[in-house]
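Morning!

This is the sequence you dropped in the shared folder:
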Amino acid sequence: MTKLFITGKTQLLGVIGHPVEHSLSPVMHNAAIAELGLNYVYLPFPIKPENLEVAMAGFTAVNVVGLSVTIPHKQAIIPLLSKITPIAQAIGAVNTVSCQNQRWLGTNTDIEGFIAPLQTTYQQDWSDKVAVILGSGGAARAVVAGCQQLGFAQIHVVGRNMQKLIEFRNSWGSSPMAEKLQVNTWDYVAKLIPQANLLVNTTPVGMYPLVNESPISAADMQKLSPDAIAYDLIYIPNPTQFLQEAEKQGAIAINGLEMLVQQGVAALKIWLQRETLPVDVMRQALKNYLGL
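The structure's back. Tokens below.
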């Protein structure tokens, strides 16, 4: 790997959020930049919500090339952008922005990150398949859009608050997404699990400090088909309790590390304007950092 040197010509990339200290994006992006021998550096920028507008003006002034956008700015940043892609519009959130001619353009690479391991490792016809998505927050929106893009016949979203679920469903309007989308409260999950070809956890249950918990009880997980895929967006611990229970049923388990890598790859392609990136280097850098 080429060593990274900061010079007077070094171009800036980064991640904005609050907090942002936990972000693993600098680890994988700087590993890729060093491997490619490019004169860029990727930095974490902790930006409080009330400082977002002035921060974006500052980033424009110092010619920042691009930024990853994380909580709590994924929705708040939209009015500050000149343009957002249709997919970011549909999800209602932006996770990647690039500056072109002093104008900020926003998109969402979470969909690409989510579907990448499904497309590359488990290539199949999804048109008669059923997806069950646990949780109805921002991450669930990207997963719903990804399942629609893959062509799932039915997409079930499970949440705790029926009013929020109805708002979630209605927010897709009359798009193709809305035709396939059904929302269900948590007491219905036991009936949905046997139907699931893909079961996705988008909730924080299973990550620190809830590392010994799963959003699905062990008894309900026993209803999961051994032919199903269980996908947890959480990547620490690996495997989560949710994935451990799924594997006991013989199901295929995917953790969130690959989604993190692939959404980062998609963002870096936009910023660097190149199609080929050292994906293995990015993945290995994360594994080394996490001790996996």
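Headline: The chain has a mean pLDDT of 93.

More detail when I'm at my desk.
O.
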